[in-house]
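User: Quick sanity check before I run a bigger batch. Here is a single chain. Can you write out its predicted 3D structure?
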Amino acid sequence: MKINWSYFTKQRGIVIVSLVMCLVILGSANYIYTRSQNEIPDIPSAQDPAANQGDSNPDSTGSNTNTPDESSNTSVSAQSNYFEAYRTNRQSIRDMEMRYVQTVSDNQNSDSAVKKEAEERLLEIASLMEKELKIENLIKAKGFEDVIAFVEEGSVNIVIKAEQITSAQATKILKIVVDETGEASQNVTIITRV
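Assistant: Done. Predicted structure follows.
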């Protein structure tokens, strides 16, 4: 009995492509989840004695003991960390995806079509990363303090660190995104976040 190895190789290729698609979907779902979180909860630190006292203070009524300045500083710190945390998260997801695709590409048992598809995906990821970086820097050059760009085929999401933007600013941002990505303007979403 002769075993048809080409059948198993094709099946393995289908499984690998399916896993890559799952990674892309998970990355997109993670982005949507992090984008939908409007507030970052304040977590008491070990250095905040008021937060660590609990009910040991007999006059405590359970109310927040932070002064308005302290709570606003914590909130501003948490909000500015949103952009840093998002970038770190995005980079780790991309690194993981690139390692996986590189593993598929380097696997000697992979079919040549699967290897070619993996190499194309690596180039696509690198291109998306380059577009995101370029868009972020061009928008920052327009005077915005911070910005995050998330580019994928068929949509571009931009998060601007601002309380609000004018229609003229939105038009400038939209022009940058459309020029750099080639996406239609209806596929671009601009979100403000303080």
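The two ends are 68 Å apart (CA to CA).

User: Great, the batch can go ahead then.
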